[in-house]
Amino acid sequence: MSTAPVVLEVSDLKKHFPLRGGLLGTTKGYVYAVDGVSFSIRRGETLSLVGESGCGKSTVGKSVLRLFPLTAGQVVLDGKRIDDMPASSLRALRRKMQVVFQDPFSSLNPRMRVRDIIAEPILNFGLAKDSADVDRRVAKALDTVRLPTDAAGRWPHEFSGGQRQRIGIARALAAEPEVIICDEAVSALDVSVKAQVVNLLQDLQKELGLAMLFISHDLAIVEHMTHRVAVMYLGKIVEVAEKKSLFGQPRHPYTEALLSAVPVPDPTAKRDRIVLQGDVPSPIRPPSGCRFHTRCPYVMPRCKTEEPLLKPDATGHLAACHLHDLPEAENPLLHKTGATAFRAA
Amino acid sequence: MTEPLLSVENLQTHFRTPDGVNRAVDGITFHVNAGETVAIVGESGCGKSVTSMSILRLIPEPPGKIAGAIKFEGRDLLKLSDKEMRKIRGNSISMIFQEPMTSLNPVLTVGRQIGETLRLHQGMSASDAEKKAIEMLELVGIPEPGRRVKEYPHQLSGGMRQRVMIAIALACNPKLLIADEPTTALDVTIQAQILDLMRDLKRRVGAAIVLITHDLGVVAEVAERVIVMYAGRKVEEAPVGKLFANPRHPYTRGLLGSVPKLGSSLTGHEERLAEIPGLVPSLKKKIDGCVFAGRCAEATDLCRAVAPALETKGPEHVAACHYALKEAAAA
């Protein structure tokens, strides 16, 4: 859809954490947290990464930020490869990519005034000419997130959760980034406050043309604010599509089940719920073949041995599922009216 | 009309703090009939959890202070001795907590924790209690209950721990089950499993449920009647269908408008989320007028001066708002 330039491109990203044990601390195995993930984000676009706890979505965010070294894969930010860049030259590029964390209480230093919190990136990246310029930039960042200018002189504990999250966003914006990574940035907030922050993020994206990687488990919020969605399961992306296509006609059984499991705030809605049995398998020993085959309601013998690849359909909707190799008439995914759960409403 | 199973009358739970009295729950009245599911919704700090803890008298006194009356099967729980109260907790009223991680004892097997209530309240022998524990685990849908009963909480996943919590709560066939955010800490697919389980068990066991939650989706799915709380007071109460179709209190309307509905991109309802401006007022200051006046777009001087009483706005539908009635007449 969009022809805006790609700002962030990730290809075949892998992050395996070694498991050490025993007397000598030898490596006993690996946690395959992220195991081959590729995506790209354009200017002014939001890509959401959704999935349940432990699927590796936060690890993707942290790997992209290079908060730890990658096991394999490439991350290209603004045309420059950053995954193997030495820390000294990476420093300047970090300005372009900022993060907003989940917990507004632990992500702000309680011993720093709001002014100093927001001024930190400005000083780190040498964005200001003099201290008057710092104050001007801090005031501008506070204004952008709709906080009063006098907030600068106060301490984090004087603010509520929603306001702190705004301070966190102001800090990210002060660096004048091109990409913002929101790791469950609204999950800890109460509903009415969540709406305020969601609206703010949407406005800011339009105003500033930011690219956003929105990591979340809340599908309703994701649908509300994203352009494209990538669904992760056990370290892999199983489906990527434009929002309408994904929510209208999911092409992976996991996405279908995930959508049907979301409780809908409407007591009259008819539900056709697919309740998945069991729990997510351990990422230390992921299942063979398709990683979802242990819980999939449509599992076929082939799924247990052969891993499905992420393949596009005619509209460019990507899904990794063997069901799409069947003749269309036999594909159970295409015959349900997609996410029936809320179609009725 | 038959006597309700639980009736809470003008419950006030206040906490003394160094900088004033915190009116966490400030005069709330409601009832729960036998076998009914009532949801209490509201945002953090509205007093919904304190209400549930007050029913079981789990509030430490001091600094807490509970006033009012909590009648359960005709007896006022606030007048019982600690010993009598212990006989009720986990027996005829039991509770499921939000955090299955921290509410189970990590050093005891699952079987012992389920058996504990049975041995205490029903005087079962250790071996009978274990047999019953296996039955309970089977009831809540845990595979291989014979093996799981000997396991410790850390060997179970989050969803299974919550199932164990439910098994403990239901072991003595309670008449009332209080579930405080039972699915909040769980993933959606696991949440769907637990909600299914709770619905199914309710049919089989027939206990009344008080469901405390902030998730309106969960409310729409399981509750029959809904109580909306704000800043320690009840602002609206209605059967679930009426509340979602025709909310009367501006806070309830704001709450419903601020949640995006799944499917919004398909139905074309992609409007901005409704924001409730401002913040919840401090509970340490006595509020004379309507508790919601500070954030309400329609507030007038009357709202700021006089607290609205709960008025009947329709069959079984009450709301505390000076202006809700007018609208009902117009509609």
Your description of this structure?
The complex is a heterodimer of chains A (345) and B (331). The model of chain A is unreliable at 338-345 (pLDDT under 50). Chain A is 30% helix and 23% strand. In chain A, strands 6-7-8-3-9-10-12-11 form an 8-stranded mixed beta sheet, with helices on both faces. Chain A has helices spanning 57-64, 87-94, 114-124, 131-144, 161-174, 191-208, 219-225, 243-248, 253-261, 332-335, 340-343; strands at 6-21, 26-42, 46-50, 72-77, 80-81, 97-100, 179-183, 211-216, 228-233, 236-242, 311-312, 318-319. Chain B has an 8-stranded mixed beta sheet with strand order 6-7-8-3-9-10-12-11, sandwiched between helices. Chain B has a 4-stranded antiparallel beta sheet with strand order 2-1-4-5. Chain B has 13 helices and 12 strands. Mean pLDDT of chain B is 86; it is low at 327-331. Chain B has 331 residues and is of the alpha/beta class. Chain B has helices spanning 48-55, 82-88, 110-122, 126-139, 145-148, 158-170, 188-205, 216-222, 240-245, 250-257, 264-267, 301-305, 324-330, and strands at residues 6-17, 20-32, 37-41, 64-72, 75-76, 93-96, 176-180, 208-213, 225-230, 233-239, 311-314, 317-319. Classes of the chains: A alpha/beta (345), B alpha/beta (331). Chains A and B meet through helix 6, helix 7, helix 8, helix 9 and helix 11 of A and helix 7, helix 8, helix 9, helix 10 and helix 11 of B.
Considering the chains and any ligands shown, give keywords for the structure:
heterodimer, A: 345 residues, alpha/beta, eight-stranded mixed β-sheet, four-stranded antiparallel β-sheet, 11 helices, 23% strand, B: 331 residues, 12 strands, ATP binding (chain B), membrane (chain B), cell membrane (chain B), AAA+_ATPase (chain B)
